[in-house]
From TrEMBL, chain A:
Keywords from the UniProt entry: Membrane, Transmembrane, Transmembrane helix
Record-linked Pfam families: CbiQ (PF02361)
Keyword Cell membrane: no
Protein name: Energy-coupling factor transporter transmembrane protein EcfT
Assigned protein family: Belongs to the CbiQ family.
Entry keyword annotation includes Transmembrane: yes
Originating species: Pseudohoeflea suaedae
Membrane topology summary: Multi-pass membrane protein
Residue ranges of the TM segments: 22-53, 65-83, 89-108
InterPro entries with a match to the protein in the record: ABC/ECF_trnsptr_transmembrane
Subcellular locations according to the entry: Membrane
GO CC terms in record: plasma membrane
Main localization category: membrane
UniProtKB/TrEMBL annotation, chain B:
Keyword Manganese: no
Name of the protein in its database record: Biotin transporter
One GO cellular component term: plasma membrane
PANTHER family: BIOTIN TRANSPORTER BIOY (PTHR34295), BIOTIN TRANSPORTER BIOY-RELATED (PTHR34295:SF4)
Gene Ontology terms, MF aspect: biotin transmembrane transporter activity
InterPro entries attached to this UniProt entry: BioY
Subcellular location, record wording: Cell membrane
Pfam family, one: BioY
Membrane protein topology class: Multi-pass membrane protein
Amino acid sequence: MITDLYVRGATIVHRAHPGLKILLLFAISTLVFIVDTWPVLALATVLVAGGYLLAGLKPAHAWRALKPVLAIFAILLIAQLYLADIRLASYVVLRFAVLILAATLLTLTTKVSELVDGLMAGLSRAPGWVPREKIALAIAMTIRFIPRIRAQFHDVRDAQRARGLDRSIVALLVPLVVRTLKDADDIARAIEARSVD
Amino acid sequence: METRDIVYIALFAAIVAALALFPPIWLPVIGVPITAQSMGAMLAGGVLGAKRGSLALALFVLLVALGLPLLSGGRGGFGVFFGPTAGYIVGWIVAAFVIGYLTERFWNRLNIFTAAAICIFGGVVVLYAIGVPWSAAVAKVSVTQALTGSAPFIPGDILKAIIASLVIVTVKRSYPLLGNRSAA
């Protein structure tokens, strides 16, 4: 199975309704973009830091979220220093960091299944022209098939390695795609045979 | 949309996730990593067509937003959409649509050259047209500066477009999904 990024816990942040967390996230991100000033950014920083403390998360969790974007931050910082001054440079980088951390707080404290359930609940209230069952089927199927396609990827790679083709991306991708399309036909027939449609 | 279309969309979203498993290739001289995952948008559009291809990418982006670590390097979650390069991830949906639309239009004349031209247009020109202004806006730099910052990635993206077009043309030969469907 694919592991999600969720960190187990029973704090108030973990137990809060996913919809409420998404709403707060959007409120914070909209606020820092519309009211584009230092005091608002400082307030957002305090709120997000408080959220991490309340959720019992360690600095390592925050660090892991920021690590992939550090290189971009460095380029941004240099560009802004060159274009403007240290104030704007640090403002832009801090704003990114706060927003990324706020959004990661949602991901770290909410199970994927909770979000999917919330999405499905929202779908059931969607207007009739929304193909609810089809969306639900597609989401469930992708989550189910990611591990299987990853396993197929390793199969194909081993087979091509035996033929000395493991350095060719085309020789890896073509069998993977064609195999998946053939599987898709079988799966579609199986679903129709159970008259899910 | 038939059940089969839903299955194609779902499985292609899973293929895009599997592309994260490719180890990144380091371009000599320029020194930026190129990851296989952005080929997902090109492959989805070129194999499934505009509608199914863009829906496959939309589904993939939705699953990333829900918190699955499906991006290369195991990244995922809502935070991805607040970073400076979020425009490229959202842009994949549009790129898949454009590549799919053009592939459908040129289906009978599709060869490695037309497919490569389509992939470069949709997967590089259109994608950067979304990603560059997006980073410029959120990072408070000018569009020219954002473009300069992204320029090192362009050779790698063109290379990926060529690889993707080879795959698209080969898959068309063995498993065509587009073209005249009423005859099928």
